[in-house]
Amino acid sequence: MGAPILNGPFTMPMFREFVPRKMQPWIYVFFAVTFQLSGGLYLGALNQMEGGMSLMREDLLMCLYSNLAGMAIYFPLLFRMKFRFTNKTLLTAAALGVLVCNLVAPYITFLPLLWAVCFVEGICKIQGTFECMSNIQLWMTPKRDFTVFFPLLHIIILGSMQLSDLMTTWLLHHYHWTYMHLFMAGLMLVDLLILSTCVRHFRFMKKFPLVGIDWTGAMLWAALLLQVAYLFDYGDWYDWWDSPVICRLTCSIVLTAYVCVKRMRAIRHAFLEPKMWTYRYLWPVLILITVVEAILATERVLEEVFYEEVMHYAETVSVQLDWLALAGIVAGCLFAYWWMHVRRFNYLRLIIVGVMALVCYLAGYYFLFSGEIHLSQLYLPTMCRGFAYAVLSATFMVCLEEIMTFQHFFQALSVFNMLHMVVGGVLGSALYGQGLSYYMADNIARYGSAIDRVSFSSSPFPLGEYMETFVSQMMEVSIRQIYGWVLYGCILLLLLFLLYDMPVRRQLKEMPSWKNVAREVKNTYRRFRSLPDE
């Protein structure tokens, strides 16, 4: 169980002696990348899975949200598991979990079971990633400087997301969509082989039992998160609150939220403690990350519709933009590292830089969207999107770490990722889907008058070709209109940040609160009443 303490500031005593010390941290980087490449289902093959599994698009998107919900809800338990089990045990269990989930997920058509498998896969995915990165943190930054750790961590996390999409599309083009699951199962077998031969059990502290964990609270918060995801994912399909299903679900969400809050305030060691919600600047960070994720949901809704319905690109064509997004992500993470660690500049201004990149992305797509453009014209806006996502994600996480104590940091990180991974994205997707439905109907009604008797008088009239071109043009106009509204909102957010950071605001005398003004008026009135009569 034990291991000799090696010389030097950084050691990994869980490795066997024959493994070269310089290779040890890189092995764990490899493990982390393999875990981040995994998923319950891979949406790069979404169209093929719809036909192959006889499921709707909403069903498959719910698998994604279940996977992300499993990752988000598990954060408060990560250190408890680390103190209870050895690193080898946790990594082996995580790899086995990902392996089994990838082998069974393509053949499950019963939706609740499929969602449960994706949820468990998300737990295994974050457990494996955390175990790898927490053990090499001192190798990445000997002083545990999170301005170094989080930017480098996001290169792995966000970069793996793009690589997973690229690999799925490549395997889909040459083989079948299930080969991505087989490929991930093969990677997990490689991880298990390395773990069984190169890693041994090692404890750096006495075993800490799993007592005092609010398992009921964890299940309640997970249920609330999944209900919210289901509401916004299936809302358009059920016609929102005109459907009794959505009405009942909304009542269930309110009831579940009430029970979660009631339990949190009633028991001593709640899954998410009440004190965690009281930290200064926590709510602004949570609101901002939700808004940013909602804005970036344009990638999953509007861009995909534009590539498929307007440009008629195959997956192998549109996926080329993932390379540009990957370049933007790496550049954004390195820029955040330079800004926060090397130069030690203000975090607020780094957020402003990220929002400016977001504005450039939205403006680029708004002005360039056309059925006549070449794919290369979208390279720069796509890089801006990756740059903005990387900068804002890393900066928000550093801000969260600095405003929280260690006791509540992982609880806050769980809430942060509930909004970051699930709520923000599904809310934005629902808004854009609803907006697209509205503007398509509105534009067809407005411009449909072009199809009149004069047009039909030409003989023969190419009705099929005419209608296909007409619908594509209406789709293009509708997407551009939604991008325009999102651009307005992002510019407004940027202006608010600029006004908050403007030098004159910092130099002005602070305005007193209304409570202080009222108190001062009362004191003045009392002094006036106490004066002797002339």
Short description:
This protein has 22 helices and no strands.
Number of helices: 22
Number of strands: 0
Mean pLDDT: 86
Question: Level of helix content?
Answer: over 70%
Q: Give a quick account of the main beta sheet: strands, pairing sense, barrel closure.
A: none
Distance between the termini: 91 Å
Overall radius of gyration: 26 Å
Q: Quick one: overall form?
A: globular
Describe the structure.
- With about 525 residues, the chain is mainly α.
- Helix content is about 75%, strand content about 0%.
- It is built from 22 helices and no strands.
- Helix 13 runs antiparallel to helix 20.
- The radius of gyration is 26 Å and the shape is globular.
- The protein starts with about 25 loop residues before the first helix and ends with a helix.
- About 40% of the residues are buried.
- The N terminus is likely disordered.
